Amino acid sequence: MIRLVLFLLLLVAITFGVSWLADRPGEVTVVWEGVSYGTTVPVALAVIAVVAGLILILWRILSLLVRSPKIIAAFSRRRRREKGWNAVTRGLLAVGIGDNAAVRQARHDAARLLPHEPLTHLLTAQAAQLDGKHEVAVAAFRAMVDKPETRLLGLRGLHMEARKAGDKVAAYAIAEEAASAAPTLGWAADAVIEARCAAGDYAGARGVLERQMALKGIDKAQYRRRKAVLLAAEAIALEHSDPLVAREKAVEAVRLAPTLVPAAACAGRLLGAAGELRKAAKVVETAFATNPHPELADVEAYLRPGDAAQDRLKRIRTLVNRAPSHRESAIALSRAAIDAQEFRQARLVLEPLLAEPSQRVCLLMAELEAAEHADIGKAREWTARAVRAHRDPAWIADGVVSDAWAALSPVSGKLDAFVWEVPPGVSATPILEHEAERVKAAIAAVRASEEAKAAVAAAEAAALVAAAEAEAAALAPPKEEPKPEPVVEPVPEPEPAVVVAPPPPSKPASSKPAPAPVSPELASMPPVAANGRGKPSRPAPIVALPPLPDDPGPDGETPDEPDTSGKKRRLMGL
Questions:
Q1: Quick one: three-class SS letters along 150-176?
Q2: Bridge partners of 358?
Q3: Which of 450, 439, 442 is nearest to 384 (CA)?
């Protein structure tokens, strides 16, 4: 706009000057070698202007001819530089898409056209990284470190190469150098904090974080979160060795980040152990309201060691009121109800979750069936369903599932990398193993109860048998011990004398003879057919004669002294 105004002003001035000259014509006379040349003033001015323009053009041509070598050299350099920058651009784009062949060609062109440019060294290093040439990449980054404008870029490249090679000492030293040169540099400060945290130097890591915050290298929210993570990690490390210091660190971490689950759980445990139950419950309930977590439920249940199951259930009821609609609240309440043998309440709480049960819900149902009804079959059925059920959340960082939270990732070493979520492609989680142990204990308790009942029944039966045997032994006559049989010399048997017995005295016809006793062996025999006919007939009764005074008896005992007299012995007592 200003240029347009100036241009218009210039046109007005020229127009004014021309009109002024036209209103005042004059004559200009030039005498050259006796010849007089005359013209008007406007024409003379026009001629002078044309002559001056021609002179300027001629001078420009002569100057261009004189400076032509330099102009050609500068044009060549400019052209070469443009080609070099184009090669660098093509190389960086090829690095982004992963085209190794294009990267190598671009690096070759850039190194030929711009051998001393910093971006050429960067392209060379990145091409070497793509090709897996560690030594070439390190050499390129070292060349960048030697120049002030690319020193930090070279340090970062060397740090990355050292971490890839597994040289943690070199990576830490390079990060320290970069952090000292630029304290606000994010990657350098993070690397130093992670290295000191991995070494257990939480105080030194917090010092680097404080310096970064003082120089405005990090925002306040991120600073509070990272400091809370470092304090929580230090409190967990000192929880058993120095509970007092650990409690102070945990409380400060909760103040900075009230929703950080590990900090709240550690603070709750330490405050509960110190007897500050109300403060511990407040810390745990505040964190549970935002992030319902099973570890917080366990801390709330066991704030005071030695409490009965009913007391734990009462505290869990208060806790779940902070997040009544969350799935974790139902699981925590059902577990506490099972421990307190409030089986009906446990079923009512778990019933809404049975439409799509997770693994923990299935195992809780298995434990409930075993504890309430002693039904091992249903408990095993629910345990089998847990294998195909939905997975439960767990602590996961960089694809690794961990039993407990940690400040650093076990893979990348990144600070505050653990998150509570469902891990992909994992069949079971550590918290599921804890629930499985509870189910095993419940089934083992059922089996132990059944074995105890069986043992009591067997003991009672044995006692009854022993009492019956003792009663029978008390009522039975004492048994006589068998006497040893004497050795009897064989005696020739005399001829048996036939003795005719007198007929028995006659009895009245109306009187019946008394039946003779029948031996059990003969009585148990089947009836025998009589007179060769098919009809069975009862055998005649066998009359057992009473023993005579000299009868040896049924045992076949012989008298103590054999009869050596020559008298004849009676046969069968006759």
A1: HHHHHHHHHHHHHHHHCCHHHHHHHHH
A2: 390
A3: 439
- Give the 3-state secondary structure percentages of the chain, helix then strand then coil, rounded to 5: 65, 5, 30
374 torsion bin: left (phi>0), alpha (psi -120 to 50), beta (else): left
Token pair 């403060």 is found at 279
Measured from the Cβ of residue 396, the count of other Cβ atoms closer than 10 Å reads: 20
**Cβ–Cβ contacts within 10 Å for residue 35, how many?**
7
232-256: pLDDT as tens digits? 999 999 999 999 999 999 999 999 9
The rounded radius of gyration (Å) of the Cα atoms in the chain is 58
Closest CA to 123 of 152, 148, 144: 144
- Residue 481: the pLDDT is 53
pTM comes to: 0.64
Name the more confident of 553 and 118. Answer: 118
What are the chain's domains?
Answer: 10-61 (no CATH), 98-200 (1.25.40.10), 219-353 (1.25.40.10)
The span from the CA of 250 to the CA of 202, in Å, is 13
- SS3 state at 37: strand
What's at 440, amino acid-wise? Answer: K
Euclidean distance between CA atoms 488 and 560, whole angstroms: 9
Q: Contact, 283 vs 260, CB < 8 A?
A: no
Task: Identify the helix (H) or strand (E) that includes residue 316.
Answer: helix 309-320
> Which string of DSSP letters, residue by residue, matches 370-404?
HHHT--HHHHHHHHHHHHHSBPPPEEEETTEEESS
- H/E stretch holding 121: helix 118-131
Question: Do the beta carbons of residue 317 and residue 288 sit within 8 Å?
Answer: no
Q: CA 461 to CA 494: how far, in whole Å? A: 61
Question: What DSSP state is assigned to residue 564?
Answer: -
Q: Which two tokens stand for residue 435?
A: 């629930």
Tell me the residue type at 289.
A
- What single-letter amino acid sits at 529? A
Q: HSE-up of 394 (CA within 13 Å, CB side)?
A: 27
Residue 153, pLDDT score? 87
Phi-psi region of 216 (alpha: psi -120 to 50; beta: other; left: phi over 0): left
Nearest alpha carbon to residue 315 among 361, 343, 278, 269: 278
